[in-house]
Amino acid sequence: MSGGDQCIETWCAGFQQHRHGGPGEPTGQQNDGINLSVPEGTPVKASDDGIVAYAGNELKGYGNLVLVRHANGYVTAYAHASELLVKRGDKIKRGQVIAKSGQTGNVNSPQLHFEIRKGSTPVDPMPLLNGSG
């Protein structure tokens, strides 16, 4: 099994189908990240340096999805993209545009779903995004 496949397998460990409505629309479904309502086509930038472990649309509910593996053991996910600008194995830098936001997967409006995991465990992204993590 390649490292990318292992990353996806770890990501999906205990995975429940990812479904939700638009931002702020409760659906009773599990959602382990944050949803940012943005206009369709908004550039999606990598949160940190890493290697693209996955870029595609095979994970149900996420639509077009990029998974980035970081040196610190974290994996970040960027879902519902209208366009993917990277491919598996690409080395990326913090701030690099990796996708364009969209409305793919199980969403009702254009948005970016952002998730952080350490192994298969979801991590609240807010402390890290606020610089206190």
Textual characterization of the structure:
This protein has 133 residues and is mostly beta strands. It has one domain: Glucose Permease (Domain IIA) (Distorted Sandwich), CATH 2.70.70.10. The chain has two helices and nine strands, in the order αβββββββββα. It has helices at residues 3-12, 125-129, and strands at residues 34-37, 43-45, 50-56, 64-69, 74-84, 91-92, 97-101, 111-118, 121-123. Strands 1, 2, 3, 4, 5, 6, 7, 8 and 9 form a nine-stranded antiparallel β-sheet that branches.
Regarding CATH, which class?
Mainly Beta
Helix content: 10-25%
CATH architecture: Distorted Sandwich
Within the CATH hierarchy, at the fold level, what is the topology? Answer: Glucose Permease (Domain IIA)
Average pLDDT, rounded to a whole number, is 81
The tally of beta strands, per DSSP, is 9
Summarize the structure.
It is built from two helices and nine strands. By secondary structure, it is mostly beta strands.
Protein traits:
133 residues, 9 strands, mainly beta, Glucose Permease (Domain IIA), 2 helices, nine-stranded antiparallel sheet
Task: Give the topology.
Blueprint: H1 3-12, E1 34-37, E2 43-45, E3 50-56, E4 64-69, E5 74-84, E6 91-92, E7 97-101, E8 111-118, E9 121-123, H2 125-129
Antiparallel strand pairs: 1-8, 2-7, 3-4, 3-6, 4-5, 5-7, 5-8, 8-9
